[in-house]
Amino acid sequence: MGIVNWEIDRMVPAQPTQAQPTQQWKERPQRRWTVAEYHRMVTLGLLNAHDRVELIEGQILEMSPQELPHASIISSVGNDLVMKFAGKAWVRQRLPINLSDYSEPEPDIAIVKISPNRYRDRHPTSDEVYWVIEVATSTLNYDRNYKASIYAKANIPEYWVIDIHHHQVLVFRAPNGDRYQIEQVFTAQDTIAPMTFPAIAIVLADCFMPEI
Question: Which of 38, 42, 68, 134 could form a disulfide with 143 if both were Cys (CB 3.0 to 4.6 A apart)?
Fold first, then answer.
């Protein structure tokens, strides 16, 4: 994940001058963007739909390109969940959720409360999110550690990482500060239920590409 430092008044990345030592530059505090400023960049045209970025802890981060297995699993799991949660919750795929004044990530899948106005004028906030899923190919360490800390800090009750390469699902529960107190590893042979919907069983084999 790369960090994009945007300046609203100049459409160029901020760069250190030759007079500044490298280490001194690294130690200088970075500018943290708010969600409101991030949205203003979109309004001004500094960011658009082609910029695959998300706001995390005040930093605008580039999102990894979607490889074929990654995109396929998001689509298939998302479609399965839409059917399972019909009338109970909404399933959002690659859409923003607002976690704080400085974080508005776009998780691969988010299961959120049903909104009377269908979130026309805002994105779901952390207290409206039941459960978040990220699909990991090359980003496993990032999703398992950094993203987990962001979701825990926002008090998201449950967070899953679908580890494509190892055919595992990492399940994080019981957020406390910036960590989850419970981390469990399940395999494609397991069936589990999310905490907020214990009657709905998820067959984890459906979270992976079928053998051909």
Answer: 134
123 strand-pairing partners: none
Cα–Cα distances (Å) from 102 to 26, 33, 97, 110, in that order, read 21, 6, 12, 19
In this predicted structure, the answer to whether residue 80 has a pLDDT above a threshold of 60 is yes
For residue 46, with 0-12 CB atoms within 10 Å meaning exposed, 13-18 middle and 19 or more buried, which class applies?
Answer: middle
The count of other CB atoms within 10 Å of the CB of residue 85 is 19
pLDDT at 7: 45
Torsions phi, psi for 49 (to 5 deg): -65, -20
What element of type H or E holds 39?
Answer: helix 35-44
SS3 203: strand
Could you read off the pLDDT of 180-206 as tens digits, one per residue? 999 999 999 999 999 999 999 999 999
Distance (Å, whole) CA 112 – CA 91: 6
Q: What's the CA gap between 74 and 100, in Å, rounded?
A: 25
Contacts of 43 (CB under 8 A, 6+ apart): none
